Amino acid sequence: MAPPGLRFMKDKLILSLFPGVDLFGRAFAAAGFCVVRGPDLILCDDIRDFHPAAGKFDGIIGGPPCQDFSGLKRIKTGYGLEMLKEFQRVIKEARPNWWLMENVSSVPDCKIDGFGWQRFELHLSWYRDCTRLRHFQFGHKLDMQIDVEKKRPVGADSYHPTVTANDRRSFEAMCELQGLSAPLELPDFNLAGKKKLIGNGVPMELGHAIAMAIKEQIYGSADAKSYLDLFGGDVRRCKCECGRRVYGKALYHSSTCRSKARRRRAALAHLDEEELDFEFNCWQENFEIEQNISTEWEMDGQDGEI
What we know:
Elements: H1 4-10, E1 13-17, H2 23-30, E2 34-37, E3 59-62, H3 79-94, E4 98-103, E5 118-123, E6 133-140, H4 171-177, H5 191-199, H6 204-219, H7 227-231, H8 255-268, H9 273-299
Parallel strand pairs: 1-2, 1-3, 3-4
Antiparallel strand pairs: 4-6, 5-6
């Protein structure tokens, strides 16, 4: 019989969108979730024809096509933005408790009415001897956030380059670097097609790190207290909205977070009046809190930005 915690997680139905060979979903399944794969072009299915039943899925995960947002592609087709909107539409129709999106660093912010929002990055070199930077966005109905464990680099003498869809390494090597214990059997695809499917996937280590964070911090698990039980109501989050914890008087988790927040503030200065009003409404609450904290610290002779 499965342990109580695992049986509990099997009741949590997760919908995986744009799955491909679904390395993302496989990582969640390995963490104990029950994963249902949504439509995908490799199965001749179109997400634009997909309309999920409301309230059936506890969470939705997915990585909409990223090519339009990649710095390597000079000609933008608009397909990436269209699929991003389809991802949002499915979430609105399915009404899950939470959603998680993976993409490249230049993908636009994906904020959905009725859900909180955070955005954070993970680098594969924090978990193994391979490089790959991915950005994730998470939303929860109750505005809960997750703090994914950021490990130190594994300390390898050298790191393998990022796995890509047109990788020159062997298919077996690509599978291993993406975190698979054995190469996937894909008899219906030629070698180039197999490599593209594996290269477009989310590395298993990254998916597993997030799945475990959701399991422990959103639901609690059989072998760990829930995040709220551990830290109560005093958890403070980074002001760049990555969701990571900050301590003491710090406003930001790291210098990278501080730079990210500064770039966003600088971008506001270049928006037209209508866009500025919209962005101001989104950021007003955090800005006022930050200003209040900074004022209090300046009265104590402290620098408000640590």
